[in-house]
From TrEMBL:
Name of the protein described by the UniProt record: Glucose-6-phosphate dehydrogenase assembly protein OpcA
Region annotated Disordered, chain positions: 310-354
Any Pfam family the entry gives: OpcA_G6PD_C
Ranges of residues in domain Glucose-6-phosphate dehydrogenase assembly protein OpcA C-terminal: 170-299
InterPro entries membership: G6PDH_assembly_OpcA, OpcA_G6PD_C, OpcA_G6PD_N
Organism listed in the record: Streptomyces olivaceiscleroticus
Length: 354
């Protein structure tokens, strides 16, 4: 069932939700959370399709916030809210409200969303594309216990990953991290089968793929060994090689679907490691609403690893040649007295030695 509302308000939308539930014979609210999707018109269909599939596992009220920018100056100034309420078969196993904001309403999306949140239920905000650098500081993100972004959808994924590491707040997560869950499980299981000290690791995957970077950061954080990042043609993450004292452990996935696990003293095994759809990734993130400490540890550990990408980040200026020269002069000035003092002590030490 669909109910269209033009130039409406939050109270009218709530009434439409009650009307829709009564019309289909389910007056009770059986949702476990509120999922807020912040996207544009172009990506709204795919995001809503993924959310409806995830709602089979997590029945939720889904609020899709679509910010519509008018081309005319008059349209940009006039605040307006259009809504489409979906219940029953048109909304998966929950309820869906599409909110199209115009004019000044775009800058106050949180005021529109707040009255529509389910009472006493957790809130999750998801940005399929164009997520903010600091999700917790975003007006909509501040309403949520969990904030889901996807650095893979950014124009410069690795730079975006470095910025997220600097601005991390408990409750933030990334679908680029969720994509490597099967890899992390498989590698941990392999080390359980062959307990041996790991001496080095090589992670192979596409260039500028944040999932590859996150896996390398996680391995370096957990194993405390050097991790080398090498490039391949993909798709995505293609191989991980761990050198141990008992021989190498290799997990190789060349086709994006089936991987081969090779361990010394054991036959090669084929393991299912298929690339997952967005709906599966979203459903996994909705299973836990507490902060992901493992993700936080891996993300913060890799800040120095991603330091080479920090130039050009929003709000930061690249170091100029003059800045570098001034730092070098200051360092030389600090080192000079130390050198003289060391030179003066040398004859005394020689005399003491005699």
């Amino acid at each position: 069932m669909k109910i269209d509302l033009t130039e409406t308000t939050a109270s009218k939308i709530n009434k439409a939700l009650v009307q829709g539930r009564r019309a289909i014979g389910t007056p009770a609210v059986g949702m476990v959370l509120t999922l807020v999707i912040v996207t544009d018109e172009e990506n709204a269909y795919d995001a809503l399709k993924a959310a409806n599939e995830a709602s089979r596992e997590h029945p939720s009220r889904t609020l899709v916030v679509i910010k519509r920018v008018s081309r005319s100056p008059r349209g940009r100034a006039r605040a307006r809210l259009d809504a489409e309420v979906r219940v029953g078969a048109d909304a998966g196993t929950g309820e869906t409200v599409l909110l199209r904001l115009y004019g000044e309403a775009i800058d106050h999306a949180q005021s529109v969303v707040l009255p529509l949140l389910l009472p006493d239920a957790p809130v999750v905000v998801w940005w399929p594309v164009g997520g903010p650098t600091n999700p917790a500081a975003d007006p909509l993100g501040s309403l949520a216990q969990r904030r889901v972004t996807d650095t893979y959808a950014a124009e410069q994924p690795v730079q975006e990953l470095a910025a997220r590491a600097e601005q991390y707040t408990p409750g933030d997560t990334d679908l680029a991290w969720t994509r490597i869950t099967p890899w992390r499980s498989m590698l941990a299981a392999a080390l359980d089968q062959q307990p041996s000290q790991v001496t080095s690791v090589t992670v192979e995957g596409e260039e500028y793929n944040p999932s590859c970077e996150l896996l390398a950061m996680w391995l370096a954080d957990r194993l405390h060994v050097p991790v080398q990042r090498t490039l391949s043609e993909g798709p995505g993450l293609t191989a991980v090689r761990m050198e141990t004292k008992n021989g190498p452990i290799v997990l190789d996935r060349a086709d994006g679907a089936l991987a081969t696990l090779c361990m010394t003293g054991q036959p090669d095994r084929a393991v299912a490691l298929q690339r997952r759809e967005t709906a599966e990734l979203l459903a996994e993130e909705l299973r836990r609403l507490d902060p992901d400490d493992t993700y936080a540890s891996a993300l913060k550990f890799g800040v120095e690893r991603l330091g080479e990408y920090k130039e050009g980040l929003p709000g930061e200026s690249a170091k100029t040649a003059e800045d570098a020269e001034r730092e070098a002069e200051a360092q030389s000035a600090e080192d000079a007295p130390k050198g003289k003092a060391a030179a003066k002590k040398t004859p005394a030490k020689k005399a003491a030695a005699k």
